[in-house]
Write a structure and sequence with these properties.
12 helices; alpha+beta; 389 residues; Beta-lactamase; 35% helix
Length: 389
């Protein structure tokens, strides 16, 4: 009879020790989170020591009603939290599942979708995109006589294509079709997307180039871009709270952050609609974008390792295919920011160390706030080469 009692006691002791260890780990993680929340570092003059401030105080300073954060550490999502309200004064709290507009962080996910089609043999990085474009062609001119617009150049902003970005369409405005956006035909509110620099000779940021990618993907697959992205990237990565829906469905809109201007006033109609899905149309969460970071650090679920390396190789001026890329203090990193009407966000990851973070906000002044949050995370986690002042 003694042996079963001894075994049972050993099992109980092991379970108790496990619970104690988990509780200690949870306390340690909570302490980390609290240090980030109270350790924001505003920009300071050279030689001036910054005063650490709380997240809530800085949200008030920048008139940003909501912030959502996800931190990647040790090759996994270590924590994710939402702060504030969906709409200023509305009372409904955000959580880690609340959707935000990714704005230009839509581009890296679109680039991953294009790279999956390269892997499948449906696209080529270095051929003239007009070979596979069907519904629309890049108009030839004196700039395209010897150098052509290619997928690599479009994804790296070196195709010489116009239109920096898009302001979207307010709730009371008609939304154009993609072909109308490409040609700048009303009701499109942006100019025609054209080549005005010899492709391959200069880096210039172009949301217009990504709209060409959107049309190219739809032409080669015969499917809407949103469906292709979902099939090839979003679903395989487990991004369950992400969609290139424009406009956003009622089901997802129930937990979506509302856009706000720089003074914290809600944008009329809650947010703008962006038919330029590849350039600015992704709705998502920091946790789902953290899965993008992980996919680039440890390829396999969506992209092959060769494709991830291709995306993170510099093409020109510290930009790869869909990401800005750098090497500071010997640590390779990749990043992208985003700015839609009433939304600002930032993504940052290290290529080799399984670390990174995503910060999303619903205010026009949220870019500076997101930078402060990233500096606080960097200070807490000891990121190499990341500016903490």
């Amino acid at each position: 009879m003694r042996k079963p009692i001894v075994i049972a006691l050993a099992i109980f002791t092991s379970l108790l020790a496990g619970r104690v260890a988990v509780a200690a780990a949870n306390r340690e993680l909570e302490a980390k989170i609290q240090r980030v929340e109270s350790g924001l570092l505003p920009e300071t003059a050279s030689g001036t020591k910054p005063e650490r401030m709380t997240l809530s105080a800085r949200m008030g300073h920048y008139h940003v009603p909501a912030v959502s954060i996800a931190v990647v550490n040790g090759g996994r999502i270590e924590w994710a939290r939402g702060y504030g309200e969906l709409q200023a004064g509305g009372g409904k709290k955000v959580d880690s599942d609340t959707l935000f507009q990714a704005a230009s962080i839509s581009k890296p996910v679109a680039a991953m979708t294009a790279m999956r089609l390269v892997e499948l043999g449906k696209l080529s990085l270095d051929e003239d995109v007009n070979i596979k474009l069907r519904s629309w062609k890049v108009p030839d001119n004196e700039f395209t006589k010897t150098q052509k617009v290619t997928l690599r150049r479009l994804l790296s902003h070196t195709a010489g294509v116009t239109v920096h970005g898009f302001r979207g369409y307010a709730a009371n405005e008609p939304v154009p079709a993609l072909l109308q956006v490409l040609d700048g035909v009303k009701p499109a509110n942006s100019p025609p997307i054209r080549v005005d620099i010899v492709p391959g000779t200069e880096w210039r940021y172009s949301g217009g180039g990504y709209v060409i990618v959107q049309q190219l993907i739809e032409d080669v697959t015969g499917k809407p871009f949103a469906e292709v992205a979902n099939e090839l990237v979003i679903r395989p990565l487990g991004m369950t709270r992400s969609a290139y829906q424009q406009p956003l469905s009622d089901a997802l809109a129930s937990n979506a952050a509302h856009a706000h201007d720089g003074d914290g006033r809600p944008i009329e109609g809650r947010w703008h609609t962006y038919p330029e899905r590849t350039a600015a149309g992704l709705w998502t969460t920091p946790s789902d974008l953290a899965r993008v970071i992980l996919a680039m650090q440890t390829p396999g679920k969506a992209l092959q390792p060769k494709s991830a390396d291709e995306m993170l190789n510099v093409v020109r001026d510290k930009y790869g295919l869909g990401f800005g890329v750098e090497a500071t203090a010997g640590a390779r990193s990749f990043s992208h920011g985003g700015a839609n009407e009433g939304f600002r966000c930032m993504l940052f990851g290290y290529r080799d160390s399984g670390r990174g973070a995503v910060v999303m906000t619903n205010g026009d002044a949220g870019g500076a706030l997101a930078a402060e949050v990233l500096r606080a995370i960097s200070a807490e986690y000891g990121w190499p080469g990341y500016k903490t002042k």
